[in-house]
Design brief:
- The protein is of the alpha/beta class.
- The protein is built from 20 helices and twelve strands.
- The protein has helices at residues 10-18, 39-58, 60-72, 105-121, 134-140, 158-168, 182-190, 204-210, 216-223, 234-242, 260-264, 268-273, 276-279, 296-309, 325-334, 376-380, 395-404, 415-427, 429-447, 450-463, and strands at 97-101, 126-131, 149-152, 172-176, 194-200, 228-231, 284-291, 313-319, 339-341, 354-356, 385-387, 409-411.
- α2 (39-58) crosses α9 and α4 (105-121) packs across α20 (450-463).
């Protein structure tokens, strides 16, 4: 079977450049004395963009087939997949419009508090939200304010992007985290649309590729089109500077993912989760959330030892991907555990040792190569927070919470360390409460004022009105 991929990422494009004979005219490496957008660097960036635009344009003839195959595999919405071609399915309202774009669920959740603030304080401003994944659509559609319009984002092919922007004519485009698509950015800039990048994050892999002398002029050209960049941490602010973003557009760092717990509290899923403790009366409970494939070995191994010491202990396992639930349940049953699955509406009995919440998605840190998940959600709920050693992009969040209080987050090295840590918390109520309080207090300290800061910056730089004082 041959799989065709039409969604060419800039990383893929740079990989092609670095492994083929084509190379733009050489130029000296950037230095503090040389502007990243000097005439030579601008020319090289524009040349690289023309190559990217030509490559993505050439993929247009097979795009229909690619999207149809993805639809058959459940990766595109069955009824709305044409939106990925830039064909909008709802009318554009009159008046000014701002477009928020996030790639998937995590980034979309981070944008929701800002979107709600926008709807509240600028009722005359229409808001459009786009993502690329079906999983994000299923969750976010229930969390967005009623007046917010939702569409699937166009594939980064010139014809699709131009059709989308030409139809919606946004006054501002707000991208979340690392959504740096050349055709989208350049098309918006040509149309005179202001651009912002909030919760800006550059992965180590992307940073390495983009700082390559071949790629540097292109990313510098793209970043020069932004009016505002808000990095999610000081380290990410440094990364953006290394990519030669204009210094004056880089603001104070802040992380909107501290605020996703607030957005989730309004969801129906959160409401149904509140019913869980009714079945757990008189049981010791711990939760392993956002488990990736392979991590269940450490979780089940630790739980097997805990059950010997605390016979009434139960673990709630929340797989990162719901389809993994059945697999984990089978493995657990083969190891002798009594398992209840939420999707089967199984009831808990005194013998139930594992409750699998395989219909919700909440965090992967026990295996190398994983990049962690948002721990602030657990902290906001007043849980004692434990995580594995591989926290990746959330390392700044772990460090920040530990700075607030050493008890706010506990990192364990593996199965044995996890079993010991959980066992201590189950035996020591004072320690458990201390960690719960520390996590919740750290969350509140770090999340306070984040949405207001982002909203005020967007007002000043993009929306063009003085922000409200509330």
């Amino acid at each position: 079977m041959i799989q065709i991929s039409c969604h060419v990422s800039i990383d893929t494009f740079l990989h092609i450049l670095n492994h083929h004979s084509f190379s733009p005219p050489p130029s000296p490496p950037p230095s503090p004395a040389i502007s990243p957008l000097s005439p030579m660097n601008r020319h090289r960036g524009e040349l690289l963009y023309k190559c990217y635009k030509t490559l993505t344009t050439a993929l247009l003839p097979v795009l229909h087939l690619h999207l149809r195959l993805r639809r058959l595999r459940g990766l595109e919405h069955a009824a709305r997949w044409l939106e990925r071609l830039g064909r909008s399915s709802i009318p554009r309202p009159e008046g000014p419009l701002v477009w928020f774009h996030a790639v998937s669920l995590g980034e979309g959740m981070a944008a929701i508090p800002v979107i709600k603030r926008c709807v509240k304080e600028r009722p005359g401003l229409s808001v459009l939200m786009t993502t690329t994944t079906v999983s994000a659509f299923k969750v976010l559609k229930n969390l967005l304010p009623p007046k917010v319009m939702y569409q699937f984002a166009p594939v980064d092919i010139p014809a699709c992007v131009d059709a989308f922007i030409g139809y919606w004519k946004p006054n501002a485009v707000i991208l979340i985290e690392s959504e740096l698509w050349p055709n989208l950015i350049m098309s918006a800039s040509r149309s005179g649309i202001k651009l912002a990048l909030i919760n800006a994050r550059i992965s180590k892999k992307s940073l390495k590729r983009w700082t390559d002398p071949v790629a540097a002029p292109l990313i510098a050209l793209m970043l020069s089109k932004f009016t505002l960049i808000i990095p999610l941490s000081k380290a990410e602010g440094v990364h953006v500077q290394l990519l030669h973003a204009p210094p004056l557009i880089i603001s104070k760092s802040c992380d909107l993912k501290y605020c996703t717990a607030v957005a989730e509290s309004d969801s129906k899923a959160a409401g149904s989760a509140q019913d869980l403790p009714v079945d757990f009366d008189d049981r010791m409970v711990w939760m392993a959330s956002s488990i990736h494939k392979g991590e269940e070995k450490a979780i089940l191994g630790a739980h097997k030892k805990l059950v010997k010491i605390h016979p009434n202990v139960v673990v709630i396992i929340v797989p990162r991907h719901p389809q993994l639930g059945q697999c984990i349940a089978l493995i657990a049953e083969n190891e002798g555990f009594k398992v209840a699955l939420r999707s089967h509406r199984d009831k808990l009995t005194p013998e139930t040792a594992i409750y699998l919440v395989d219909t919700l998605v909440i965090g992967g840190s026990f295996l190398p190569g994983l990049s962690g998940h948002n721990i602030s959600e657990a902290a906001a709920a007043g849980c004692a927070v434990l995580t594995g050693p591989h926290v990746g992009q959330f390392s700044h969040m772990v460090s920040a919470m530990k700075q607030q209080s050493p008890l706010a987050v506990l990192q364990v090295s593996g199965e044995a360390d996890l079993e010991t840590a959980i066992g201590e918390l189950l035996c020591d109520q004072d320690l458990l409460e201390a960690r719960q309080n520390a996590a919740k207090q750290a969350f509140h300290a770090l999340s306070t004022g984040v949405v207001s800061l982002v909203w005020n910056l967007l007002c000043w730089h993009l929306i063009g009105e003085t922000p409200c004082s509330s």
